[in-house]
Amino acid sequence: MTDQEARYDRIAEGYATWWAPIHMPATLGLVRRVDDALAADGARRAAAGADAEPGAARPAGVDADAETPLRVLDAGCGTGLLLAALADGRPDARLTGVDLSAGMLAIARRNLLAAGTGIADRCTLVQASLDHLPFPDASFDVVTSAFVLQLVPNRHRALRELRRVLRPGGLLATLVWVAGAPGLGADEAYEAVLDAHGLGDGPAEGDATDGDAEGDATDGGATVPDDDARDDRDDRDDPLDASRAAARLRRAGFARTTAEDDTLRHRFTPQTYTGFMRSFDDEDLWASLAAQQAVDLERDLLARLQALDAGALHLELPIAYAFGRRSPRP
Ligand SMILES: C[S@@+](CC[C@H](N)C(=O)[O-])C[C@H]1O[C@@H](n2cnc3c(N)ncnc32)[C@H](O)[C@@H]1O
Q1: Ligand 1 pocket: which of 148, 149, 234 to mutate (most atoms <8 Å of CB)?
Q2: Which CATH architecture has domain 3-180+226-267+315-326?
Q3: Could you read off the pLDDT of 300-321 as tens digits, one per residue?
Q4: Which of 14, 201, 265, 303 could lock onto 280 through a cystine, CB 3.0 to 4.6 A?
Q5: Which DSSP string corresponds to 139-163?
Q6: Residues of the chain with CATH 3.40.50.150
Q7: pTM score of the predicted model
Q8: Please, which residues bridge with residue 264 across strands?
C-alpha cells in the first residue's frame, strides 16, 4: 500500500464531510462544461449530418444512443460526487470511477446508491492507480479528473495513461489547482493559537522573518488541505494558470485544448473553520490531544476567529479547467 493510499483511506470520512462539499461547486462546474462540450459535439454532428458510429471510432458526445452508451471514466473519483452528478444528467452514460483508495471508493459506493434510482447500477468502481489503469486502449469516450493530478507521482505519465484509455477524438476534462493561492487570514490565527498552546511548529529552519508571507502566497496557504498540500506532492508543479494547464495536455498528446481560469470560493464561519481543522485538515494533531486540551484549544480558537474580519474566513483558491481531445496519432 502506498502512503497516498493509506492517507486517503484514513481521511476518507473527514474528506466526505468537510472537504468534498467545499469544492462541490467546482466539481459541478466541470460536469456542466463536459455537458456543454458534448452538446456542442452533438450539434456539430447534426449539422454535418453524420451518423453515430458505435465503439471506438465514434466521436465524443454521441448523445442518447441507447445502443452505444457514452463510456465515461472519472479518474481519481474520490467520494463519487462527480460520477453521481454526471450520471444524473446523462441517462445514456455508463460510468467507471477509478481511485487508489478503498476507503474513498467505499464512500463513493454509498453516495452513488443514495444518488437516485439506477445511478449506482450504471457506475462501476475500480481500485487502481492512474499510473497503470486496468483498461484496454480506447475504452472510454470521456475521461474526467478533478483535483487529482497534483497527487500522482508523475503528472505527464498519468496524462499519457488517461490518453491511452481514451479513444481517438475522445474528450479529456480536467480540473486542477493553480499555483499562487493566497493564504487565508484564519490560518495565521490558527497557527498563533497553536503556538500559544505550545503546539505550533515554530519557524521552519531557514525562515527569514519576512519569508513567511511570500511562502504562503506561493504555496497556497495552510487551508489547501494536507492531502493536496506541498508535503504530499511528488510533483509540486501546479500550473500558473489555465493556459499552462492546457499546454501540459498538448504535451501529453491532446489536441483542440481549451482552458478556463476560475476561483473556488468558500465562506467558513468560526465554527465550520474549527470543525474543518479539527476533523479533517489537522486531524492528526487534534486526535493526539488530551480531551481537556482539545476543549481549551477549541475555545481559544473560536474566540480568536470570532474577533477576525469575516474576510479572513473567506477561502479563494485559483483553479483551472483544461480540456482536450485525444489526437489520432499514437
Ligand atoms: C483530492 S481527492 C479528489 C477526489 C474527487 N475527484 C473530487 O473531486 O472530490 C484526490 C483523490 O485522488 C485519489 N488518488 C490519489 N492518487 C491517486 C493515484 N495515483 N491514482 C488514483 N487515484 C489517486 C485519492 O485517493 C483521492 O480520492
Answers
A1: 148
A2: 3-Layer(aba) Sandwich (3.40)
A3: 999 999 999 989 999 999 999 9
A4: 14
A5: -EEEEEEES-TTTSS-HHHHHHHHH
A6: 3-180+226-267+315-326
A7: 0.85
A8: 317
